[in-house]
């Protein structure tokens, strides 16, 4: 960004003047350039002040000043139980230079250290930034008059001293000109401290720390260095400096610049090309090395980024017109405005003992005159930091990871220069500590106050931030499978179970079972809802409520489709037990044998199940249990006279089945999921041989430990799930409560529950637990792989399914796929998406004798992540149309209109306007404009008539006339354009009433919606063959409609006229415009005053549509590399005729990859969802359903004067018959668009950038074919202070993108679409500021 290197303005924009968000861009750009120049001219060292000590000015009279500085009460302040002070300390009486401070003591001030806080700039106020917005005890309310308490204030932990430095910043002043620079600032700050200690002598021996952010990356180390040197050589006050902490700190010019643009690139704020240009043209090794060519590139790149808030790239901007001023952190981005108002109130300044000299002009957060006069600024402060590291004081460097101004990338580069290598969120080096604060921007305590408080607490205590404490299943403290696998590394592996579990048969113990079934029957469990099935000691149908006492019914319980038997095995697990302690030292072999014995006996107790089909399922280490037990069953079925178990299949989920694959797959998954660093992953790849645990080296273990540390407290069993105990409201991919295991613990340890379950009859010592860790610590046999057993089962004829939740990280899908490859089975059914309730449920591939299934959005415990319904897949009329046209010979005759004019049918129109007037629509809110609808006959002989709906503007006589056309071909402009996009009304979910669309385009123009051709919506023909139509007749009928409609509404004959539309209207609009212009020249009938056209996400060129669509799919990760490459290799889209069968196969495969994604807006939910998943817009995806119901209501049709002929069947949004029988369609309308460009009318092409049907890629390919010169280069345009999209003006054509909008732009981004449409009508480019 252009303000990236000029901190004097950063808080001015952030904290104070709202217009900086809208108008400050060029000013910031100017300052950034100035800073680059200053770096090239400024002195490179400030070593002169470290050579010897200069006597420090000591004011003679500090007695009594402390009491004079005490603040009685600030205006609008809540009551507090600590003291605070503010006032001036003179640092140079000869020049009249005095610095202002604000000091907030802690409640127990006598026991707490003293911390000095410095904001940066240079030239910005610590009172406004640090005290009032970040870490001070108060924040200002939006009224600008009152304060509220900041519960995360740092004065809970220390006595905090805020200093406005140098003179000229905030309330600090000088009576003479100041020689601004690093050296003078450090000297004055030191003089301030020495004198302040005389005023507050009780702090002279207190531990002292300096903290700050941004350009305080210079201030703090330099002041610390000066203190340490003067402590050695002065007879004055010795300051007890213990440490420094600097946040998002500017400490090295090279690292800052390279880090910023690398951060921008990795966060998708700049293009590949621009990033490469920076790398090619810029040498940031010093200020002198930044060339003119580099600066030009940086200026262009900064401009291209648009108004993203560089200090927190995910934060909103302050804007009084915005409907949403909140950020993810809850921080109000307009806080600076409130502080500005507050600190400029005379009563506030009086209470603060501030502005005693009457500083001219209002107080401001930054002094923009200081920076241009700054006369010394070293390129790097790293030598000073190294000096401090060697001194023995504590040095902490922290970084909010969403800051783009001094990003974490810059800090990490500097850490490397210090001789450190960063590998995680917190890393402690020799003499320096680096901490990142997740989700925080440049002003860390503002954006993440709780995390910042924890940071400063750790810093003051000299301890690293606390390690994660997670008590839920799969957290760092409770990971049974992980513990088992780690325990194995200290033992030798036993592999004998990979052979047959039993090669010799031993008779199985069978106990008498008479009467035990009835004894086991559960009457009712405590807190259980009423059910209509019988249950014994199995409780899968229920989940435990948070009260730990009652149950709720799991509607996805597997006993809906089968009788489900849950077994706690081996002995020692859950309620299972043994009277012999040595039994708890067990392993795979005994577990299989005991489970088999259980089954034989259980079938005697429940003999009705002996001949029933039997399946086994399980997860995790059941990847051993299930195959081994299945193998034992099959073997014993052959050799025993006892019960034959009718085993039909097994299914194992996120299953531990192979040691090598488990470890290799896990760390590969860590890396692909961005949980660990490149370096650590490379270390594992290079140092680890996972063929068995015996082959792992110490270096390998070290890298694994490092990976676990880097990963942090991510819930390993579902990396996108929240943690139990967290207060976070962040969305999860499932509705599973991560604290469920706690509720279960309490429930199953309730005596009445155990009694109802007939459990713990022997009085098992200690409470029931979810896992028995003593068992896995003493596990005695576990093969490295059970793949040989699985292969044997595959050969046995039983069904073998392996499934994987794709967000699990303990046995990730990567691991399972590696194991599937080892099975070496041939593919029978290729990879495809499977569905649950209309949503992609996951993906499946059928191999010879084994099936692999993924469950989308599920973690390790797949059934817990119930699949939500996002609804049905939407229609794709344009896609279907293009496929149909491939089978036909495409016509291109519409590229040039005929110069021969045929007289247009014009019917008498007397009285029809009045007849078409709509009094009121059913369920319509009151409006202050007129509306009309009805039919216009375009061919009386064929009985062909087109239906329209016309919504006038409130001041209709002054506004232009705009025709709107939807595409398809064959789709309704009433049901789509008018009712769901840009019309004045939208339909409520009841399908009966309407609500007003405040962004309706009839606020700006009189809008005419036309259903064309005949057969679309309410338009009709009495001649069936008319429904076999095409581009030519559609243009001709639309023209005839217009000529007749203007006779019906003659007041619009001379009005400026525009044509707009989307999708296949990329054909309709240009062709109709061309016909109008031609007929205007040669007819004596109505001359239509055509001024321009605007077409959105427009289908205008077949080649560009197809290649652009699949390129868009690939760049947005919707299709595989293989299928995209196949399209590139097999497809020639230059004409429809050139599309081969092999190309068709490649595109079909790519289409299958996508699954049920609504690619008219690839980020939108589908209709039917009860999900709370966020969407980029608030548009209701079921709106089409409401419109369908509404327009098929008889009283609505009557009010619209529609369906007067009684059209058979209901009104529908699109007519499939029409596009299946379309008989002429040129493969490109670019020649027509070129003709329109040359005619002098306005031609605009716009594109919603989340549409996958006619994506922005397609539109840009077509614009390149137009070959026109750029007039106004690409720039971001704005709506309500946010980037609304991007625009570029060419010679005679303008291209505009609408950010966050899909195919139906006004539906998804109504405010941005409104701003775009206003610009189009005014003939002005979209606004560069708002």
Structure, explained:
Helix content is 34%, strand content 15%. With 1330 residues, it is of the alpha/beta class. Strands 21, 22, 23, 26, 27, 28, 29, 30, 31, 32 and 33 form an 11-stranded mixed β-sheet that branches. Helix 21 runs antiparallel to helix 22, helix 22 runs antiparallel to helix 23 and helix 35 packs antiparallel against helix 36. It is globular, with a radius of gyration of 37 Å. The N terminus is likely disordered.
Low-confidence stretches: 1-52, 320-329, 421-425, 467-504, 727-734, 862-874, 889-899
In total, how many beta strands? 33
Q: Which structural class fits the helix and strand makeup?
A: alpha/beta
How much helicity do the residues have? 25-40%
> How much of the polypeptide forms β-strand, as a percent range?
15-25%
Q: Determine the mean pLDDT.
A: 80
Largest sheet report: 11 strands, mixed
Radius of gyration: 37 Å
| Individual helix count | 43
Shape: globular
Report, as a whole number of angstroms, the end-to-end distance.
Answer: 18 Å
Write the layout of secondary structure elements.
Elements: H1 10-16, H2 20-23, H3 25-41, H4 65-69, E1 84-92, E2 97-104, E3 114-118, H5 127-134, E4 138-140, E5 147-149, E6 159-164, E7 173-174, H6 182-199, E8 208-213, H7 216-233, E9 241-247, H8 253-266, H9 272-281, H10 292-305, H11 335-343, H12 346-351, H13 382-391, E10 394-400, H14 408-417, E11 426-429, E12 432-437, H15 444-447, H16 449-461, H17 480-488, H18 516-520, E13 542-544, E14 551-553, H19 588-605, E15 614-620, H20 622-639, E16 647-655, H21 659-672, H22 678-687, H23 698-711, H24 740-748, H25 751-756, H26 773-777, H27 787-796, E17 799-805, H28 813-823, E18 827-836, E19 839-847, E20 850-855, H29 877-886, H30 912-916, E21 931-939, E22 944-951, E23 961-965, H31 973-981, E24 985-987, E25 994-996, E26 1006-1011, E27 1020-1021, H32 1031-1048, E28 1057-1062, H33 1065-1082, E29 1090-1096, H34 1102-1115, H35 1121-1130, H36 1141-1154, H37 1183-1191, H38 1194-1199, H39 1216-1220, H40 1230-1239, E30 1242-1248, H41 1256-1266, E31 1270-1279, E32 1282-1290, E33 1293-1298, H42 1305-1308, H43 1310-1322
Parallel strand pairs: 3-6, 3-8, 8-9, 9-10, 10-12, 15-16, 16-17, 17-20, 23-26, 23-28, 28-29, 29-30, 30-33
Antiparallel strand pairs: 1-2, 2-6, 2-7, 4-5, 11-12, 13-14, 18-19, 19-20, 21-22, 22-26, 22-27, 24-25, 31-32, 32-33
Helix pairs in contact: 1-11, 5-11, 6-7, 7-13, 8-14, 9-10, 19-20, 20-27, 21-22, 21-28, 22-23, 31-37, 32-33, 33-40, 34-41, 35-36
